[in-house]
Amino acid sequence: MNKRWAAFLLYDLLLVVVGVLLSPFAIFRALRSPDFRRSLPGRLGFAKDLAVRPGRILLHGVSVGEVKALKPLVAELSKQYPDRELVISSTTPTGISTAKQLFPNFVVTAYPLDLPGVCRRFLRRIQPDLVVLAELEIWPNFLATCNALHIQVAIVNGRITQRSLAGYRRVQKWLPQFERIALYGVQNQRYANRFSELDVPSERVVVCGNLKYDNLPTAAEQEAFAGSIWRHGLGGVPIVVLASTHEPEEVDLVREWIGREGSTHAVLVVVPRHPQRCEALIPRLQRLAPHLNSRLFSQAHGLQDLRAGSLLLVDAFGQLEFLYRVAQMAFVGGSLVDHGGQNVLEPAVFGVPVVVGPHTENFEEEVEVLAAEGGVVRAQTAQEVVECLLEWLQDSDSAQKIGQNGANALESKRGAAQSTVLALHQAGLL
What we know:
Blueprint: H1 2-32, H2 34-43, E1 57-60, H3 64-80, E2 86-90, H4 93-102, E3 107-110, H5 116-126, E4 130-134, H6 140-148, E5 152-158, H7 162-171, E6 183-186, H8 189-196, E7 205-207, H9 211-215, H10 223-226, E8 239-245, H11 249-257, E9 267-272, H12 278-288, E10 293-296, E11 310-313, H13 320-326, E12 329-332, H14 345-348, E13 354-356, H15 364-372, E14 376-378, H16 382-394, H17 396-411, H18 416-426
Parallel strand pairs: 1-2, 1-4, 2-3, 4-5, 5-6, 6-7, 8-9, 8-12, 9-11, 10-11, 12-13, 13-14
């Protein structure tokens, strides 16, 4: 107990020191970003002061991806437990913004900084009976405060990488106290085995499936797409998407693309993971490939004059789902660099053949699900990625088969939301 007390004291001191060092940056960001400024009260524990209501559930997703993954679970909880009030929290400004869009009828708040007083103030204002954390968003002081206030905590859509496991094993005697969590609803047996290495009681670990499969759109959902600029495609011109790319993937791939046989037969659409990079990226791409008709999405007046051989750089959020409905193939980025990859499920669900680089640690299960059915191709270099895309352009039947394999693999994976609610119920948390 004394060792744990000392560990918490050291942890809190480090947080205070880091907070002081970063405070000038936080002030500067608050002055420049309205979204960040609006999130500050919640981050400091000043969430909306809610009236006492038995059975309230706080569901937390750290950022956009985790918040989106909560959508089918929120729908299932609302269906099975309509009397339960649900509150949604997120850490990042973009996560909060996404939560407000996805859950307009629920209270949405910023998640608190992990300081004891801040966490206690936050929880006393929200007053949940149950806290549901997506994936593995655990903070020592938050868990300790929930425990002190007799608030149950559950992990849903749980996942833990091998790298994270090694780190947690080094500090698990002191922080973050995994025994405080009542249920681990995990995505697959591999993650369940890893949690068992942290001495989590086996009866608390339940394989529920991956909520992301439930959250995937379907080809039948046409309402939003009907109003999209992409709804008619590009008049039959093939669309090759470089999706969710990171520095320097765009430049490396375009460099390999230009001048290759067949590259002028399609429109290359580049969608960086962070659209704010596009303003600086477009002149680099134009210098690299001056003969290409290169433009920014925000400056394009329609798509009708985009001809084969053009390059479009998308500097806006929310376009990928529409693009995947009309694209012929896609590279999913963050995988040629040591980032861990991005979501390969979104293109695959629409039957789009997918190629990825070697770094897919963040989505290892998803890639393996597709690979097991022949629904994804792994490449090692930018050159191999481009060669794969050009082969698909020449052999559309092969590309379509890979895409269909991926779509079929995902259809059988739905149902995690129901399994998760059942696990919460059986654990006595609902």
